[in-house]
From TrEMBL:
GO cellular-component term (any): periplasmic space
Family listed: Belongs to the MerP family.
SUPFAM superfamilies, A to Z: HMA, heavy metal-associated domain (SSF55008)
Keywords: Mercuric resistance, Mercury, Metal-binding, Periplasm, Signal
NCBIfam families: MerP
Source species of the chain: Ralstonia mannitolilytica
Gene: merP
Designated name of the protein: Periplasmic mercury ion-binding protein
Stored CDD domains: HMA
Span of the signal peptide: 1-22
Protein role: Involved in mercury resistance. Acts as a mercury scavenger that specifically binds to a mercuric ion in the periplasm and probably passes it to the cytoplasmic mercuric reductase MerA via the mercuric transport protein MerT.
């Protein structure tokens, strides 16, 4: 019984000591270079490849991309670099926690 209790305590301690999940963040990027129906697809693919990105919505009419990401794995600079590397420079227009 003591061994069982010891193992249970150890398992609980290990479970609680794991890395904390970072809160997801959302940022809106202005992507003024998008001007055709294929552009949002390219931007979305580029942003989706960034590790930590959970969700990407791209709006051609507004020329914006809204990205939800894990800030422990990604940052705004990485998102902007991804759009730049895809041929679509971007800037931050808004963010939410």
């Amino acid at each position: 019984m003591k061994k069982l209790l010891a193992w249970a305590c150890l398992a609980l301690a290990l479970a609680l000591s794991g890395p904390a999940m970072a809160a997801p963040k959302t940022v809106t990027l202005s992507v003024p270079g998008m001007n055709c129906a294929a552009c949002p697809i390219t931007v979305k693919k580029a942003l989706s490849k960034v590790p930590g990105v959970a969700k990407t919505e791209v709006n051609l009419n507004k020329r914006e991309a809204t990205v939800t990401f894990d800030d422990a794995r990604a940052n705004v600079e990485a998102l902007m670099r991804a759009t730049q590397d895809a041929g679509y420079p971007s800037t931050v227009v808004g963010s939410a926690e």
